[in-house]
Amino acid sequence: MASSLSLPQNTITDILSRLPLKSLTRFKSVSKHWADLTSNPAFIAAHLRRSSADPYLLIRRYHSQSGWDYGIWLITDPTLNFGTQLLRIPLEDSLPRFPKIAGSADGLVCLDISPCYASDFVMWNPGTKQFKHLPLPLITSSRENPIWMVFHGFGFDSFNNDYKLVRIVSFRGNDASPFLRVEVYSWREGVWKEIEERFELALLCGGQDGVVVDGSLNWAAIGLQRFSDRKVVVSFDMGREVFKTVPLPPVTRYGNVKVVSYMGLLAVAVYPLVYAANGNNMNRFEFWVLSDCEDGTKRWTNLVVVENFSKSLVPVGTWRDRELVFKYMGVRDRENQSSIFLFDPVDQRTRSLAIDCVDFCFEGFSYVESLVPVN
User: Considering only 72-76, 77-81, 136-140, 275-279, which range has the smallest mean pLDDT?
Assistant: First the structure.
């Protein structure tokens, strides 16, 4: 019988690049040649291109009131509850608290394991089970200059073929207005660096992580000065390492805003505030996408308007970059009522997910299996 190694090398590479990560990990022990092949950057990139077509849903949840019953789950098909897997978190037994997910990109998951101020991170590949404790950030809090808030985001910089973790640190100024310092961790270089780049006319909103859209990290913010009649998006270009401020439609002034990626474009879901101090609260859901015009400019396009929208439904992200993920925050009317929904903005079809998160804080991220190393 002919050996499989008698096949052309391109054929062997093509066959192996189609296999799931679990099989590739097992096949590494078949021969040194296969082990070297599956560690080759070109092969890793080929395998990633195939696996990226069918992303999984990575879920972080914990019980809202007790803070316990927490975990990070990987779900291959949320609509069927197929292949649900509770992941073993690196260093879990020694962590001061349940880690946050700073971001997920190409099979790498960045965990915030710090007790506060997003000051300690781990790079983790759940598929290969590799992890790396990153160097501590350069920007720290002190008694003379205490940190007020920290925002972060993690994504792939295609321009430099690098993965970057961005940390925006806000300090309370003497005039009660915050001032910022920004630092970036490079996966390729393995070090943090502080950058001088800043953004203006915006005040970042708390409780959010950066959303990756076409090589940029994006955060919702309150507009200032000429943008005071609306919210804005603060966008950080990971390749050029510069910020820009993108004004949102005026309707965002009266509702909550969730920044998402939709079909590779920057998009925002606008939904009702639970409480509105001035009474100017919208009672509808709107979905806007920043699309390209023929003259090369960009324009916000309203894809969906749902009147009399429930305050109990909160958008938490997108799955497969096509469907919005909603969490139901209200009291269940019946025992088997679903708490997580998928909504397609094109045909406005809604699907329930077989995941019980009614009493849980829930965060969802796209995840693909890959051989991308943590170093």
Answer: 275-279
Could you tell me which of 208, 204, 139 has the C-alpha nearest to residue 363? 208
Which residue reads 């679903």 in tokens?
Answer: 338
CA 307 to chain centre: 28
pLDDT at 2: 45
Neighbours of 178 (CB within 10 A): 14
Q: Where are the beta strands (DSSP E) in 17-120?
A: 56-63, 71-75, 85-86, 100-105, 108-112
Distance CA 327, CA 357 (A): 8
- DSSP letter at 7? S
State the virtual CA torsion across 109, 181, 150, 189 in degrees, nearest 10: 10
CB atoms within 10 A of CB 147: 18
Query: Of 369, 373, 374, whose CA–CA distance to 58 is shortest?
Result: 369
pLDDT over 60 (residue 277): no
Helix/strand/coil for 372: coil
What would the mean pLDDT of 38-55 be, rounded to a whole number?
A: 90
Beta bridge partners of 361: 62
Rounded to an integer, what distance in angstroms lies between the CA atom of residue 256 and that of residue 271?
5
Give the pLDDT confidence score for residue 106 in this predicted structure.
Answer: 96
Name the token pair of 126: 């759940």
Question: How far apart (Å, rounded) are the C-alpha atoms in residues 296 and 299?
Answer: 10
Q: Which of 37-46, 186-195, 218-227 has the highest mean pLDDT?
A: 186-195
Instruction: Specify the pLDDT at position 335.
Output: 55
- Alpha-carbon distance 250 to 86, whole Å? 42
